[in-house]
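Annex B. Sample input.
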Amino acid sequence: MVVKLGVSARREDLKGRLSFPTRSFNFFSASNDDSKGVHEFTPMIEALLQLYAPSDVEKAFLLFGATCGPCAFAAFLRKEVLEVRHYFPSFPERQYTNLPMMTKALASAGMRWERVTQWPNQGLVLISGPEKYHSRHWVATVGEFVYEVSLDTWLPKRLWERDYLPELAKRHQSKACDWHVEAGLELSPFSQLDLPLLCR
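Annex B, continued. Sample output.
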């Protein structure tokens, strides 16, 4: 488990150092063309509005030690973290989620998945740093968006890679380039009507 929740001061400090606000994105920061109008980003904004960020992350941490695995799982399934608690019976004794634990949770929830070695189009991603068992982190992904529990929100993947991943790596005395996809779980709970808007 990489990101420890419940430490509000640390999280607020991280938010303050990122170049976009948590709930109100500066999409222009991701573009080299400042002449583009807001309408250029309307599809992205509309896609973000279809995604769900659990509102009970802090509460779930306090009640059963929820970390990045259960929170990413909940965000992808558009549920609150406490609604999916029963899929992670090892908490709070073991406050981490390895790959077998996550696939067991998915199976219990009736989800089908395909393990991939690259970043999935939609699903869950386990990323690892140089200390494999001490620098792991789960995120959810749909199209070009990533759910990052440490920021309590979804954001464009390119912003996550540019602004958040270096901060995560720094906490583990490493560089962003040292982190890689350990396992991608390709899932498909979204309808075909959703996908054209959410995916590139």
